[in-house]
Amino acid sequence: MTQNGDDATLVRRPGIPDLRMAPEEAEPAPPQDPRADQPPQELPLDRNQAILEAAKQVGALLKRKGHLFALAGSVAAYAHGGEKNMQHDVDFAIRPEDAEAVAATLREAGLTVYTPPEDWLIKATCFGQPVDIIFELAHRPVGADMLKRAEELSVDSVRMPVLAPTDLLWSLTAAFSEHHCDFGAALPIARALREKVDWELVRRECGDEPMPAAFFFLLERLNVI
């Protein structure tokens, strides 16, 4: 959608030094290690796990406040059984009319929230990971019907609504254009979820757009569909 924010701190327990008699003449002090006074460093984060932790944290906040939402993007694909290979950020889908309330919920929890130049989402940062709160998918406003079709799934032990596979693949495929056409990112998701997707519905919803049509052609040639 990472390290667990509550359990991430590594604690170094000091050992008990050996007791010995003090010498008659003071021994010269050993050279001071410049790192001795520094706190122990945490292990570097795995990016996939960092994204998952951000998804869990934001999903739990939205669920606790009763917002209508669904996890989207590569983290949603993982929740449906896809590869644990997150892309760049965490995506959540909400209705346009809920954007201000969702932003307020995230700010109250201490997250940084801002409005980018694009007018179809707001952005936040959680555990150092970017979070996109999207209220328009493939140039269509997110509706209550889509969010109510979402399936409640376990996302790395935290249950939350996740876009249904057909809606998820439609949102990825219908977004393809001459300026955004990353088949390589969508192909593993399509392959992993192919048996859960109503492909005929996705085709109808994409219409005659050339880039989605090219993606369907690729899926057919690779025997994905």
Automatic annotation (TrEMBL):
Region (Disordered) location: 1-42
Any Pfam family: NTP_transf_5
InterPro entries assigned: NT_sf, NTP_transf_5
Name under which the protein is recorded: Nucleotidyltransferase family protein
Species the sequence originates in: Streptomyces paradoxus
